[in-house]
């Protein structure tokens, strides 16, 4: 039952233009275009474009999948009565959730491989096998954290329209204040503050350092770990409370 | 072994402070087609959703296949669900799946070994197998929903206004499918409808819910014998009181 559900969840994902644009088209195309413009630029910590933005765009694909194809999809199924129809069958909400999680992991993996390949083919990206594996496993962990955030946020929505507006606004905020397009250091001060409260900025920052093997438990990282963990606990509490009521 | 599939006693359901069902008594035997009628907002859909096991209730007893729904564990509930199927109003399935994929997916849910070709043939779905569910007309959506509902060979089928909005030809086609299935299987069909001619033509019994209680539960023949020209005049007379 679970495997069949995963199979059809993936088929539906690849048939939904809206999801494809935000996950399969926008991040890789932006990665390539920005690379053409800023390939000679140097970023904080002396990183070049590939070191800075290859991991960023991998996280961005993961974010898009988790928020559109996982969270928004749940709202759509709830609002349109599909979820109600499914609950008449022997399938349980746990299996549906497991299938959605598996779907997001599979697409995030594909995004990881895709962006890495673009990096290798176009920008001469160098990556050892160990670094590749560590980066991949870290991505899965970050993906799992984002799934919890997404589940907590979208469990509050019952209408497609409001969830759609929220998704698009959230995508823009994350794109511009998460360090996915413009380096946070070069943003105006008030936007920087938005970045600091944006958990995806912290997740992105941590992933960039893991990807570049510069991760260490310094004060800056501990703040990011503490903040994202705090929001993770809050999200879990929200999910639990929503389930009860 | 009990000869009924559903037994309901003194069922009550509140939404907040509003009492929707105030005491429903009802028994559905195997092989029966039962029509549930009542004004809009009378609680028909709530009653059917309780029988579908997707809605909780406040008080009373609801036994499906001899199991009290308040006393079953998750495993038993899944076993009960594997023998129930439904058509909801409005009909909704995954929009981005084709008809044949929906049939396959629902077969997986029920772990059913039913030959899908048999269902496809019975419901004449051949032409639409590769059509996305969302692209079907209203009538075909209902027909596919019925095919999906019947594909698991359920013992209890619940249909919430299955023919609403369909033209007379499509209504007739759907009813032929429903009665044809009942003849072959020892199942119970419980349905809500606003078409009183359907009750008269196809149902073995009528449950009339008024103000949240069972006001009449009888055969159409007995109702007509009591002096009504048609079930429609019975219904109009009852709701005007």
Main attributes of the structure:
heterodimer, A: 245 residues, mainly alpha, two-stranded antiparallel ribbon, 2 strands, 80% helix, 2% strand, B: 241 residues, alpha/beta, Rossmann fold, six-stranded mixed β-sheet, four-stranded antiparallel β-sheet, globular
Characterization of the model:
The complex is a heterodimer of chains A (245) and B (241). Chain A is mainly alpha-helical and 245 residues long. Chain A contains ten helices and two strands, in the order H-H-E-E-H-H-H-H-H-H-H-H. Chain A has a two-stranded antiparallel ribbon. The model of chain A has no long low-confidence stretch (mean pLDDT 90). Chain B is of the alpha/beta class and 241 residues long. Chain B has a domain of 129 residues: 3-Layer(aba) Sandwich (Rossmann fold). Helices cover 37% and strands 26% of the residues of chain B. In chain B, the strands form two sheets. In chain B, strands 6-7-8-3-9-10 form a six-stranded mixed beta sheet, with helices on both faces. In chain B, strand 7, helix 6 and strand 8 form a beta-alpha-beta unit. The model of chain B has no long low-confidence stretch (mean pLDDT 89). The interface between A and B is medium-sized, with 20 and 26 residues.
Number of domain units of chain A: 1
Label the CATH architecture of the domain at 1-81 and 194-241 in chain B: 3-Layer(aba) Sandwich
Estimated helix fraction of chain A: over 70%
Helix count of chain A?
A: 10
Largest sheet of chain B: 6 strands, mixed
Structural class of chain A: mainly alpha
What is the topological layout?
The complex is a heterodimer of chains A (245) and B (241).
Chain A: H1 2-15, H2 17-38, E1 42-43, E2 47-48, H3 49-79, H4 82-87, H5 93-123, H6 129-154, H7 160-177, H8 189-197, H9 199-211, H10 219-244
Antiparallel strand pairs in A: 1-2
Chain B: E1 4-15, E2 18-29, E3 33-37, H1 44-51, E4 59-64, E5 67-68, H2 74-81, E6 84-87, H3 99-110, H4 116-122, H5 138-151, E7 156-160, H6 168-184, E8 188-192, H7 196-202, E9 205-210, E10 213-218, H8 220-225, H9 231-240
Parallel strand pairs in B: 3-8, 3-9, 6-7, 7-8
Antiparallel strand pairs in B: 1-2, 1-4, 4-5, 9-10
Helix pairs in contact in B: 3-5, 5-6
